[in-house]
Amino acid sequence: MTVKTVFDDLWGNWGFEAETNVTTFLRDRTVNTLNSAMQLIWSNAKEMSYFARETITVTVNSSGVASLDDDIQTVIGPVRVASTNQPLLQISSRGAYERFGLLFGDSPTVSSGTPQFYFLEELRQATADSVRLRILTVPAPTSTATISVDVIKQPTRFYYSDYASQTVIAVPHNYEAILLPVVRKLGLGTRFFVDKGRESFVEQDYQNALAVLAGTSPRVMPKEAK
């Protein structure tokens, strides 16, 4: 499925047969609708993160801090030392991280070495993405260390230029039954939606899409027929 396919479908529901008839305002609305649909799909698939899951490597500095890029939505683990594949154990609270030496040793300080534990820190930042993620390790490495982290990134963001280039949209198993109904549902919020009598069908297709999304995981086994 491509961005052009989605835009053309949405414009058809809005009563526009050609791109030349679509105003700049509605082009912006179309882009926002698609991006909102992708975010909705991602947020409804938290338990089936296999299609959004990615393993990245990041550098831990000598202070024991690894800053993650803004497009990282969440860390789902595991976190491992990249060179040995040894998993790090997670520290559950900031307080336990700060008092680690006293809680698990006899000194408030911890000698540097290979990271064995980590705490995931969430901070506010003054950018479009207001949440900043950092991984704090104990012990801190002597110089630097590389860790591998399983994360979920933000869904791909699309732009109007993707229409002409016919950029491919990645959805679970390429199921068109998921994306188009979600886009149509979000497209109901404009006065340009021409066939008001179809609103109930659009809503039903949307509910069906969420049901399909819930069953796209290869771990979900079909029920036995009675």
Globally, the shape reads elongated
Largest sheet: 4 strands, mixed
Residue fraction in strands:
15-25%
Indicate the radius of gyration in whole angstroms. 23 Å
Biggest sheet: strand arrangement: 2-6-5-4
Number of domains: 2
Low-confidence stretches: 218-226
Percent of residues in helices: 25-40%
| Amino- and carboxy-terminal Cα gap | 36 Å
Query: Could you state the order of secondary-structure elements as H and E?
Result: HHEEEEHHEEEHHH
Counted by DSSP, the helix tally is: 7
Average the pLDDT over all residues and give the rounded result: 83
Structural class: alpha+beta
DSSP, total strands:
7
Topology:
Blueprint: H1 3-13, H2 24-43, E1 53-60, E2 65-67, E3 72-81, E4 89-90, H3 94-98, H4 100-104, E5 117-124, E6 131-138, E7 145-153, H5 161-165, H6 176-187, H7 199-214
Parallel strand pairs: 4-5
Antiparallel strand pairs: 1-7, 2-6, 3-7, 5-6
Task: Please describe what this structure looks like.
- The chain has 226 residues and is an alpha+beta fold.
- The chain contains seven helices and seven strands, in the order H-H-E-E-E-E-H-H-E-E-E-H-H-H.
- It has two domains: 100 residues, no CATH class; 101 residues, no CATH class.
- Helix content is 33%, strand content 21%.
- A four-stranded mixed sheet has the order 2-6-5-4, with no helix packed on it. It has a three-stranded antiparallel sheet with strand order 1-7-3, with no helix packed on it.
- The longest helix has 20 residues.
- The C terminus is likely disordered.
